[in-house]
Amino acid sequence: MSIRLRLTAWYTGILFVTLLIFSSAVYGFVHLYTYEELKQRIVQQANKVDFGTDGFDVLPNRSSANRLEDADLYIQTYNVLNNRIWRSDNMKFSGLQFETPSVQKVNKINNGFKRVTLNGNPFIVYQLAFTESNTNQLVLWLQVGANTRTIEQTLDRLQSILIMGSAATLVIASTLGLFLARKSMKPIGKVTEAAEQIQKGTDLSVRIEYDGPQDEIGQLIGTFNGMLERTEGFYKELEDAYAAQRRFVSDASHELRTPLTTIRGNVDLLQKMWEVAPGERADMDEATIKQISFEAVGDISDEAKRMSRLVNDMLSLARADTGQTFELDPVPLQPLVEEVARRAHFLEKTAEWHVGELSVLNGVYVEGNKDYLQQMLFIFIENAFKYTPEGEVSLDVVLYKGQVGLRISDTGIGMDKDEVPFIFERFYRADQSRGITSGTGLGLSIAKWIIDEHKGSVEVVTRRGEGSTFIVWLPVVFAPPLE
Ligand code: ADP
């Protein structure tokens, strides 16, 4: 059974009980009130009856009888002593006769009110016994009756009105209730529909449209939409991560295939050359064979180095992907940068190496890891040398608003502006570097990861043919030197 029907059933049931209690109370009250009033009127009139004598008989006098008749009451007396019955004129006229009390004693059964039906009409009859005051002997029964047809009819009508009214109210209320329940449950239907749509398909962009008030249903829809938005966000992130992972694997295999092909080619060449005895070779002399072998081994060595660099870089990034972090301690920057500057002299280079004033770094500490910071600086410096065939590469430092900027500038080949957003992506190599300068396209991705781990940022200024400047900004912790 749907909530809608259940709600309506409950609502109708409660209304039914309420109407039943209310109608019974109204009916009971009107019933009691009208009869009680009539009874009081009868008792009052009966007590006011005066008696006179007619020979031996004791009878109500004329004026009393008239008064009662005017009040639409019927009077009958029954003289117990002589067994005579007297009836008022209106009784005689209508041919009415009240049953005389059978027991000639005054008791509870006879004294008081009785309901009787005479000539098809309902009557209420009040019986009152009169006794001889001295002997206390029963003398006369006085019976005063009233026709209760009008009262009964009024009560019947009231009963019908109450029953019909209650039934109509119930029908109208339950129909309206069902309509209202359906209306208020409609948005829930929308929630179900949206949930089903998501369950069947993969479209997480579905939202439930609702412009009603912010009541319970409004809140439910709001929560549901919020949940969908978060799920969609998670799903998108997951999809992006999965796509990045796939790209990484495909790029990595592609990058590894090139050195492997070169190595295999050279190994095949060496094998073929050395399978034949040196003396049996007509086309090559000893020196040529030696020269070719030397070049092949050199190629193999270069490619092996390239592969091991690539594998190391990939390993670093794979570690970064698993969320692995390194410990951060306050690191004094001056000795660190000085060491990097000194070691940079020994790098393979064709450009000049300039180091600016590093004394501003005295006492400057950053929260970081010495090894990783050095690795990051070397990535930028090696790149600068790699992409600067002639000219100069320089390193200097700036302090600005609680940050330290490590600036590596070169006057090399530079890049197009629109390439800058991609250079930190894995395996990305700018067009002019591809196939000309050796590299894996992973260096800057690793540098970016190290900078992120240090809560720093990187700024790039570059122009094609004019050179590039990379500034790495790191937050400074001012701590006294540990000495
Ligand atoms: P690679 O191994 O190719 O150097 P990186 O991730 O270190 O990989 O750099 C990505 C690309 O950014 C390089 O291929 C190159 O095109 C460009 N790049 C990086 N540094 C410089 C620089 N100093 N001058 C010009 N281009 C640069």
Automatic annotation (TrEMBL):
<feature type="transmembrane region" description="Helical">
    <location>
        <begin position="161"/>
        <end position="181"/>
    </location>
</feature>
<keyword id="KW-0067">ATP-binding</keyword>
<keyword id="KW-1003">Cell membrane</keyword>
<dbReference type="Pfam" id="PF02518">
    <property type="entry name" value="HATPase_c"/>
</dbReference>
<keyword id="KW-1133">Transmembrane helix</keyword>
<dbReference type="InterPro" id="IPR004358">
    <property type="entry name" value="Sig_transdc_His_kin-like_C"/>
</dbReference>
<dbReference type="InterPro" id="IPR003661">
    <property type="entry name" value="HisK_dim/P_dom"/>
</dbReference>
<dbReference type="Pfam" id="PF00672">
    <property type="entry name" value="HAMP"/>
</dbReference>
<dbReference type="InterPro" id="IPR050428">
    <property type="entry name" value="TCS_sensor_his_kinase"/>
</dbReference>
<dbReference type="Pfam" id="PF00512">
    <property type="entry name" value="HisKA"/>
</dbReference>
<dbReference type="InterPro" id="IPR003594">
    <property type="entry name" value="HATPase_dom"/>
</dbReference>
<feature type="domain" description="HAMP">
    <location>
        <begin position="182"/>
        <end position="236"/>
    </location>
</feature>
<keyword id="KW-0812">Transmembrane</keyword>
<keyword id="KW-0418">Kinase</keyword>
<keyword id="KW-0808">Transferase</keyword>
<dbReference type="InterPro" id="IPR036097">
    <property type="entry name" value="HisK_dim/P_sf"/>
</dbReference>
<keyword id="KW-0902">Two-component regulatory system</keyword>
<dbReference type="InterPro" id="IPR005467">
    <property type="entry name" value="His_kinase_dom"/>
</dbReference>
<keyword id="KW-0597">Phosphoprotein</keyword>
<feature type="domain" description="Histidine kinase">
    <location>
        <begin position="251"/>
        <end position="478"/>
    </location>
</feature>
<protein>
    <recommendedName>
        <fullName>histidine kinase</fullName>
        <ecNumber>2.7.13.3</ecNumber>
    </recommendedName>
</protein>
<feature type="transmembrane region" description="Helical">
    <location>
        <begin position="7"/>
        <end position="30"/>
    </location>
</feature>
<dbReference type="InterPro" id="IPR003660">
    <property type="entry name" value="HAMP_dom"/>
</dbReference>
<dbReference type="GO" id="GO:0005886">
    <property type="term" value="C:plasma membrane"/>
</dbReference>
<dbReference type="GO" id="GO:0005524">
    <property type="term" value="F:ATP binding"/>
</dbReference>
<keyword id="KW-0547">Nucleotide-binding</keyword>
<keyword id="KW-0472">Membrane</keyword>
<dbReference type="InterPro" id="IPR036890">
    <property type="entry name" value="HATPase_C_sf"/>
</dbReference>
<dbReference type="GO" id="GO:0000155">
    <property type="term" value="F:phosphorelay sensor kinase activity"/>
</dbReference>
